[in-house]
From TrEMBL:
It is a multi-pass membrane protein. Coiled coil: none annotated. It is found in: Endoplasmic reticulum membrane. PROSITE patterns: DNAJ_1, DNAJ_2. Keywords: Chaperone, Endoplasmic reticulum, Glycoprotein, Membrane, Signal, Transmembrane, Transmembrane helix. GO terms for biological process: protein folding. Residues 35-99 form the J domain. The lineage of its organism: Eukaryota, Viridiplantae, Streptophyta, Embryophyta, Tracheophyta. The keyword Transmembrane applies. Gene3D superfamilies: DnaJ domain. It comes from Senna tora. Residues 1-28 form the signal peptide. This is Chaperone protein dnaJ 50. One of its GO terms (cellular component) is endoplasmic reticulum membrane.
Length: 301
């Protein structure tokens, strides 16, 4: 009896078929079914100068402007593609590796698509573009918030009263009985509203200098200015032991109490003077002040 035929191992058979079909495309993705070197008529060991000369020689022969034959035009496209691959050292190296290692299908394919379909934009241009986009969105967002806040404030009775008082001031205290706040001319409202300084905490008017892109560009200048400021501070108050100026004492007071600069600016001068004279940057004075404030708060309750 004849021995039964050996059973086909399907997984191994499938792998063989797949590799037989797929291995060649790992090289073919560059110049289709052709060899890039053969298209230019050079050997794989040809240098860059030889490749360039071969391309120019073939382009003079097959360029559509020189040769109207449709087949010649198709060949010129292949020649130009082969030259683009071989003139660049990186893509030529990848192509040579694909020729030497056709079994590494997935690696060769990934390298090809990375070279031809990956981003070739200068990273610096990408960074500048992102900064411009972020700065634009930041500016628009702040303008939107500011306008929304202004619209809300203009609907409050306090704003309308201030507007009415300003109108009376401009008209010399004479107001028509027929002309009320409700039917005040819109142009008059806009003109008077521009004279009222509306400072809304958390929704200040946007400034170009606060944009992230501008701040990043000015970062070296800002750091240099900061280092100079710290150097002058150390020399004046740590080495020379001069008394604090009013501006520097105000800065120390504000930072000790964690008061934002806008809030400090909007305080009345008497309150600021009282706080500065307390020398709250000194720990005992600050603790005593905070204790007094807590007692005052409990007493009010």
């Amino acid at each position: 009896m004849k021995a039964p035929p050996a059973p086909i191992r399907w997984p191994a058979f499938i792998l063989i078929v797949v590799f037989s079909v797929v291995i060649s495309p790992s090289v073919a993705i560059y110049c289709d079914e052709d060899d890039c070197y053969d298209l230019l008529g050079v050997s794989q060991s040809a240098n860059a100068s030889e490749i360039k000369k071969a391309y120019y020689k073939l382009s003079l022969k097959h360029h559509p402007d020189k040769n109207p034959d449709p087949e010649s035009k198709k060949l010129f496209v292949k020649i130009a593609n082969a030259y683009e691959i071989l003139k660049d050292e990186a893509t030529r190296e990848q192509y040579d590796y694909a020729i030497a290692h056709p079994e590494e299908v997935f690696y060769n394919t990934a390298q090809y698509y990375r070279a031809y379909y990956g981003h070739k934009t200068d990273p610096r241009a990408v960074l500048v573009g992102l900064l411009l986009i972020l700065s634009g969105f930041q500016y628009l967002n702040r303008w939107t918030r500011y306008n929304q806040a202004i619209d809300m404030v203009k609907k409050t009775p306090a704003y309308k009263n201030r507007l009415k008082a300003l109108e009376l001031e401009r008209s010399g205290g004479i107001s028509s009985k027929k002309k009320t706040q409700k039917n005040m001319d819109k142009k008059v409202q806009e003109d008077l509203g521009k004279e009222l300084e509306l400072q809304i905490k958390g929704a200040e008017m946007p400034s170009v200098w606060e944009l992230v892109g501008v701040r990043l560009v000015l970062l070296p200048y800002t750091l240099g200015k900061l280092l100079l400021w710290y150097g002058c501070w150390f020399w004046r108050y740590k080495v020379k032991h001069h008394p604090y100026s009013w501006e520097d004492a105000s800065y120390l007071t504000r930072t000790s109490l964690h008061i934002p600069q806008d809030a400090w600016r909007s305080m009345d001068e008497g309150t600021k003077e009282d706080l500065v004279l307390r020398r709250l940057w000194e720990k005992p004075n600050l603790e005593s002040y905070l204790t007094d404030m807590r007692k005052e708060s409990k007493r009010r309750r």
